Amino acid sequence: MIRVVLVDDQELMRVGFRMVLGAQPDIDVVAEAGDGDAAVRLAKQHQPDVVLMDIRMPNLDGVEATRRIVAADTARVLVMTTFDLDEYVYSALRGGASGFLLKDTPPDELVFAIRSVASGDAVVSPSITRRLLDRFVDSAGPTRDSAVLDVLTEREREVLALVARGLSNTEIAGKLYLSEATVKTHVGRVLTKLDLRDRVQAVVLAYETGLARPGV
Fold this sequence. Notes:
By secondary structure, the protein is α/β, with parallel strands linked by helices. It has 10 helices and 5 strands. About 50% of the residues lie in helices and about 10% in strands.
């Protein structure tokens, strides 16, 4: 079973998410929280697989709650937001979130995202994540030394650049004329060499080092 903690300051939102997730045979909503403080406490108490985290909440916002949960290695965090260009979401991604969804995401996509994050993958949508990064990564230039990428081979840099554009392994395989298994191996090596948790962190790093640029 995939154990989930729901975090949202609006009870009606939590009810809606619980109905969707509770109908799945492989998902168990083990707790709910209405603010970030409670989210951190319940994540530690229940050790869920995924915390579905709202951003704007009283007492402690979702950004700081995400940082604390990820730092404690108690769960993976999937951020929810009402706005697809919410300035707080980029901070949450940098804090270790494994992706984010809009609150009006269709139920089947929500379930897919929960399962993906629980399995160790990340939710990286070209239509949402890249637009957020395009807007909130400093357009004046890279914010991290690109030398951190020197550990990668040329092919691995190519793969990372395509991951940053939001391409799936299948799409990258078609673009580089490789097998999907080979691409998966390259992605795994990129994450290992750069000490990254998942594809979301890889996207952030690619932007911060200038390998990927807003609008490109």
